[in-house]
Write a structure and sequence with these properties.
The chain is of the alpha/beta class. The chain is built from seven helices and seven strands.
Amino acid sequence: MRVVAVMGSYRKGQTIDTLIDEAIQGVRDADPSAEVEKVILVDRDIRYCTNCMACMKDDPEKPIARCPINDDMQALYPLIRNADAYIFATPVNMGAVTAIMKTFLERICYTLARPGRWPIRGCPEPRVTDRKRLIILVSSGLIPPLLRRLCDDATSLIKTTCKDSLNARLVGDLYAGAVAKRGIDCYAAAARRLGRKLVQ
């Protein structure tokens, strides 16, 4: 199984980086033969989408639509497309994903999806037909899990984008809340369990 883990935090070695490593360890515990690639978005040259619509207007039968922006996404497109499962992880910033994760999600939308017909003609549908699997890890420094629904729009955005562009089904998610007070150790086992669940 090929797993791609996308780390959308700006800070290495902190909450999200640690939890994604726990999930990766869970993958390896459950499937020692799994190929796992961790993509740290801040280490990549990923430019903003310019809404040129080249990807949306490209041949819908192509496995990956053309994007004229020549940056590190060109190497990431086939990596993402050819994966069997995904770990997407981000802090919740201002209630949503980080800016770099949002940029990444915008760039995969119509390069890995094509204009569909439901519910509105042109909405993205996956170019791939094989079903993928997904887990999502998000964290908040202040907001505890009990109040998650007040601040977490990140999970729904990632879930929807992965469903529409990657044909990925969510098999589980983790909200690590109030980590400034609680720390991250109390969430590590849950992240590892999700990693095992991803490949079982």
